[in-house]
């Protein structure tokens, strides 16, 4: 392989492996993962697009956080190792530090008690050499000391252990965690750790536990159902002591209990008829007579101020004893004439009579004559009606052209130039007819109500005819007309008519 090619490939490989990341995004908000004492937040960065394909390192960082403002007292983390001696030779001082982060105080929690820095003497090799002056002072120093009981050390809490198991196998329970006063433990007259060694939190283990329902106490009886005499009073109870939960059984029994009650004196009772007795014998020995039956006001009988039974205690019905006696029929009186049978104009009204005074019985003769009589009548003004036609000859029309029908054979109010307008008092059901004869070309016409198509007439050859009649309800203000539709048409002679008459 060529030397320059090899160098270029190595350059690409190096570039690919050590590609740069872009800047980190801001940290996300702290997300709770354990009650409110501990959370996690994260931030991200992206490998910068370009020649490299892969960047070294991670593109996501996570860290624990506890800025959810739960109340947590601070506790010291472990001491760091001592740093270097402060001198290069002879006796010096070395230092160590610790952080208040196990845990750090959160919310109104107390800060760590004590100092974050500790010092100790140190000797770095032999005594320093040089022309230094001899030591000033004595080479011996004495100090008081107590070699007896241990020095006092205040106790400090160690970290919380993990939460224990939920106290229940279903529903809501409690989980508990503990900590030891051992970081450090109190020594001598040192104060014990401040606070408790146990912390509890609620927990939910699966679905709610099954709880069987149990009845609560009965409430007080309600009011008597009547204002006088004997009635019923009712009391209720709820299945809430406890209420059933999950697969728990409902309460056993009823939620309502009733008992009889008496409210004051006996109530007034209205009388009510008992059942009818059997009919007695027929009043005649032949033909149609009368038979009678009776009943008693005893179901119940009236009490106190109660009303007596309403009606009669005797009922009669016709009866036939053997064969009917021969009775010739005779007409009853004529009824009044009925209404005029047309909504307007001239019509007929009828009256009737019945052969029942008496009706013919057995071999008796029927009534002689007719049971219906009629007479002429006039119901208000003449019914609205018109008939109009075209004059003789051929009449060409363009698409959409209104057909005026100028020759009026029968005129009425509201008709003008081919349009019928329903005026006040003219509303009703109309019978409307349209007849069309085509001229030298085919014809297409439509009957329209307020613009909407009701009827479409079509002829497909010269002198072809088409017609249609419809009944339609019209109200005041409706407008009816005929117009050419779809294409230019030719209509021929007086055979093209437009008519309407109110029929009811």
What oligomeric assembly is this protein in? single chain
- Low-pLDDT segments, ≥5 res: 4-17
Helix content: under 10%
Radius of gyration: 58 Å
InterPro entries: Compl_asym_regulator, TSP1_rpt, TSP1_rpt_sf, Tumour_necrosis_fac-like_dom
Subcellular location: Secreted
Keywords: Disulfide bond, Membrane, Repeat, Secreted, Signal, Transmembrane, Transmembrane helix
Main location: secreted
Describe the structure.
The protein has 504 residues and is mainly beta. The protein has one helix at 3-17, and strands at residues 31-34, 38-44, 60-65, 90-97, 117-124, 171-178, 198-205, 229-236, 256-263, 287-294, 314-321, 345-352, 372-379, 385-389, 394-397, 407-410, 415-416, 419-421, 428-437, 443-449, 452-459, 465-474, 479-484, 489-492, 497-502. The chain has a five-stranded antiparallel β-sheet, with no helix packed on it. Strands 17-18-23-20-21 form a five-stranded antiparallel β-sheet, with no helix packed on it. It has a three-stranded antiparallel β-sheet with strand order 1-2-3, with no helix packed on it. The longest helix has 15 residues, at 3-17. It is elongated, with a radius of gyration of 58 Å. The two termini are 111 Å apart.
């Amino acid at each position: 392989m060529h030397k320059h090619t090899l160098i270029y490939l190595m350059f690409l490989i190096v570039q690919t492996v050590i590609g740069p990341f872009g800047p980190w995004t801001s940290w996300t908000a702290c997300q709770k993962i354990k009650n409110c004492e501990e959370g996690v937040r994260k931030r991200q960065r992206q490998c910068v697009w370009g020649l490299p394909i892969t960047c070294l390192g991670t593109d996501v960082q996570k860290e624990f956080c506890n800025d959810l403002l739960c109340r947590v007292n601070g506790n010291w983390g472990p001491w760091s190792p001592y740093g270097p001696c402060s001198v290069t030779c002879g006796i010096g001082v070395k230092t160590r530090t610790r952080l208040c982060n196990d845990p750090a105080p959160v919310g109104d929690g107390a800060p760590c008690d004590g100092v974050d820095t500790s010092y100790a003497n140190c000797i770095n090799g032999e005594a320093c050499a040089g022309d230094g002056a001899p030591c000033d002072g004595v080479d011996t120093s004495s100090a008081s000391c107590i070699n007896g009981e241990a020095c006092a050390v205040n106790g400090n809490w160690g970290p919380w252990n993990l939460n224990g198991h939920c106290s229940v196998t279903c529903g809501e329970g409690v989980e508990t965690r503990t900590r030891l006063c051992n970081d450090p433990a109190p020594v001598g007259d040192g104060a014990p750790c401040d606070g408790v060694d146990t912390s509890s939190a609620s927990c939910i283990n699966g679905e709610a536990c099954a709880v069987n329902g149990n009845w609560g106490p009965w409430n007080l009886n309600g009011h008597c159902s009547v204002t006088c005499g004997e009635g019923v009073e009712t009391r209720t109870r709820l299945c809430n002591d406890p209420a059933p939960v999950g697969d728990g059984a409902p309460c056993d029994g009823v939620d309502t209990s009733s008992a009889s009650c008496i409210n004051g004196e006996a109530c007034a009772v209205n009388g009510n008829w008992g059942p009818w007795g059997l009919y007695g014998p027929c009043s005649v020995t032949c033909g149609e007579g009368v038979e009678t039956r009776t009943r008693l006001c005893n179901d119940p009988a009236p009490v106190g101020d109660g009303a007596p039974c309403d009606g009669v205690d005797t009922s009669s019905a016709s009866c036939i004893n053997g064969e009917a006696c021969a009775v010739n029929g005779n007409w009853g009186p004529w009824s009044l004439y009925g209404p005029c049978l047309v909504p307007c104009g001239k019509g007929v009204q009828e009256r009737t009579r019945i052969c029942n005074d008496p009706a013919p019985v057995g071999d008796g003769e029927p009534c002689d004559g007719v049971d219906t009589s009629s007479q002429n009548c006039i119901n208000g003004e003449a019914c609205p009606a018109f008939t109009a036609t075209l004059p003789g000859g051929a009449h060409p029309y363009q698409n959409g052209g209104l057909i005026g029908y100028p020759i009026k054979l029968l005129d009425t109010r509201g008709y003008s130039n081919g349009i019928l307008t329903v005026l006040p008092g003219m509303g009703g059901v109309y019978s409307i007819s349209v007849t069309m004869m085509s001229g030298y070309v085919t014809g297409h016409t439509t009957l329209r109500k307020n613009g909407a198509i009701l009827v479409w007439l079509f002829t497909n050859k010269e002198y072809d005819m088409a017609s249609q009649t419809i009944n339609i309800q019209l109200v005041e203000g409706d407008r009816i007309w005929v117009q050419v539709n779809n294409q230019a048409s030719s209509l021929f002679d007086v055979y093209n008519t437009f008519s309407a008459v109110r029929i009811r």
